C-alpha cells in the first residue's frame, strides 16, 4: 500500500540541503602520534607528539614517561604525568630546558607518580597546532595551543573548591616564585643532558586568568611552608582555584633561554589573543608550511602518511633564537653562554639529515634554510667548530664531518649570503683538525690525510664508516671551494681526497672493508657484521656510501652488470647478521629483520639511498620497483608507522621526496635522481612564486613504472632532474605503466652525476 509520508519528504529535503563535507586541509591530515608506539628495544619511529609551530623554539607534549626518560610519550602507556615543554630531538639525546604543568583536583600531588592520571586515546586529540585529552582521575580536560615560544592552556574542571595546577620545574637545579597578585608563576629550570654552558637556564613565566585561592612552593615534592619563592635541586609550585562544573581556567606560558625579561617579551606572541585564536593561528601556520606541496589522488592513508611525514620534516632544526624589543633575532649561545645577536638553530644530527631533510628545506623552504646557514656561521664564531650533532650545543655522538654537505649544498643553491666565506673557513678547519669531542672535527684526521683512510687498528672504532663519510665530505668541500673560486691547488686536494673511498674497496670480496695502518685488510671479515668498522650497519650498507662517484664504485665492481647484481643481493640475501660488536641485537638490526627486504635496512639512514643507485647503471625500473615497495610497506599514518628511528625529519623527508618521484642522492650537486611519483598529481609551490607540476594521471598501485617522461612538453629520457630547471618552474608529465620500460634510461648518458662519469651535464 502506498501512502504519502510527510516525515519522508522532510528527510529528503534535509539530505538535499546538507552541505558537502569540508575538504581536509594539509594540517588536518597530519597525525602527530605517528611513530610514538616505540620503545628502546624496538623503534617504530621513536617520536613524540610535538605540538608546536613549524621550527618552533618550544614543543609541548603529554608526558607518559618518568622525569628524565627519553621515551617521554609512548603510545602504549595509559597514564599522563604532565604536559611538558620539551626541546628533545630524539629519545637517545634526551631533553633540555624542560618543565611540566599538570592539573588536578582534591589533595595536591606533586610527585609525578601520584599526580599521574589515566587517559584513553579515545578521548585524545592531537594536531600539530593543538592537543586535547581527558584526565579521568581528576575529571579535567586539558587543551593546549602553542606559538613558537609561548602557549595557551585551557583546563576545564568539575565543580570544586580544590582545582589546582602544578608546575614541576624538575630536578638538576630549578627555581620558582609565585606572584599571587598577578596570577603568575615565574622561574627557571636547568635540567639538561649535555651540550650546554654552565650558566644554562630556561626561564619561564605562567600567567593564569583566574585568581588563586591558595598557592604553595615545594622542595622535591615537600611543601616549603610560609614562602612563595624557592631555589632548590627540584623546585615546584601549585596554585589552587575554585571552579564551577565546566569552568575553564586558562594560562599563558612562555619561556626564554636569555632572561626572565625576554620570557615576558616572548609571552607577547600571544598578547591578548584568546585560546581559539591561538589555535587557529597555529592551524594557519601549519597549513601555509605544509601547503608548499599540494597532492591530489592516492588513498587517504597515503595522503595522511605524506603530510605526517612533511610535518616531521619541518620540526628540526628548531629555532633557538628569540626576538628582542626591536624585533631582531638574538640568541643565548649554547657554545659560549653569551647572549649574541643573530640566528641560531639546533637539535639536529647531520649524520642523518644531510641526506634528504636539508635538501628538502633548500628546495621548498630556502629562506628558513638560509637562516639556518647564518646560524651555523654563528655557531662557528661562538664555539670555534661547526656542530655535527647539536642539542643544543656540541654533542659527542655519531661519525663523519657531514656539516660539509649541509653547508656546501646550501651554498650551491644560493643560500649562504654574506656568510659563505666564513662557512667555508669552518669547513676547512673541521676537515683538517681533531675536534674537542670525537664527533666534532675529524677523529683520525692525521691518519686519513696521510694514508687516505682511517685505519682499523688505531683504537678508533667505525673506521671504514669515517673514511667513506670523510671522502664524501671532501667532495662537498671541493664543490664549494670551486664555486667560491678558491685556489686550484686547494680544490684539487679535496677532489683527490674525495677518491679515498677506493682505498677501502676489496675486489676479492666486492665490498668495502676496514684496513690496517700497514695496508693489510682488517681480519677476520664478515660482511654481515654490524658495527666494528661501520656505524650502525654492515658492509652491505656502507659499500654504497659513495654518493658523489657511483660510476667510480661501479668501475671498481667491474661494470654495470656486476654492480646491479651486487645491488640485487642487498634485497635478496636473507637478513642474517653478526651483532657481536654490540654484545646484543640492537634495535636497528631487528628492524632490518622484520622488514622482509633482505639486507636492506631502511630504518637506518646509511642505506636509504640504495634503491636509487640502479638509476646509475641503466636499470631505473628497479629503482621504481623498490622505492614503491618501501613507500607501500614501511610507512603508515599510524603510531607504528615508521620502520626505525625517524631521526629529525630524515626518514620523513625520504618519503616526501620519494612520493614526489625524485631524491637527492648526492647533496652538494644540483641533481636529483629520478624515481617515480606515488600520486596522480603533485604541485610544488616554490618560494620564488614558480610551480613545479608533477602529473601522473595513470598512476596506480599497479602502474608503478615510468614508461615516458616529458619535461615542459619535451621528451626526457634522463634518470635525473636538475635544481635549476625546477627552480624556474616546470611541468613534468609521467606516463606510468604496469610493466617496466627497459628501453628508457638505460644508457650511460642518462645516468646522474658521478665524478668518474665522462663528459659534463
Automatic annotation (TrEMBL):
GO cellular component annotations of the record: cytosol
| Glycosyl hydrolase family domain: residues covered | 262-737
**Record region (Disordered):** 741-761
Pfam families given in the database record: Glyco_hydro_92 (PF07971), Glyco_hydro_92N (PF17678)
Which keywords fit this entry according to its UniProt record? Calcium, Signal
Could you state one GO biological process linked to this protein? glycoprotein catabolic process
Q: Which GO terms describe its molecular function?
A: carbohydrate binding; peptide-N4-(N-acetyl-beta-glucosaminyl)asparagine amidase activity
Q: Name the cofactor(s) required for activity, per the record.
A: Ca(2+)
Q: Which residues form the Glycosyl hydrolase family 92 N-terminal domain?
A: 29-256
Q: Which domain of life is it from?
A: Bacteria
Signal sequence span per UniProt? 1-21
Which SUPFAM superfamilies does the record associate with it?
Six-hairpin glycosidases
Q: How does it assemble?
A: Monomer.
**NCBIfam families membership:** aman2_put
- PANTHER family from the xrefs? PEPTIDE N-GLYCANASE PNGASE -RELATED (PTHR12143), PUTATIVE-RELATED (PTHR12143:SF43)
Q: What is this protein called?
A: Alpha-mannosidase
What species was this sequence derived from?
A: Hymenobacter nivis
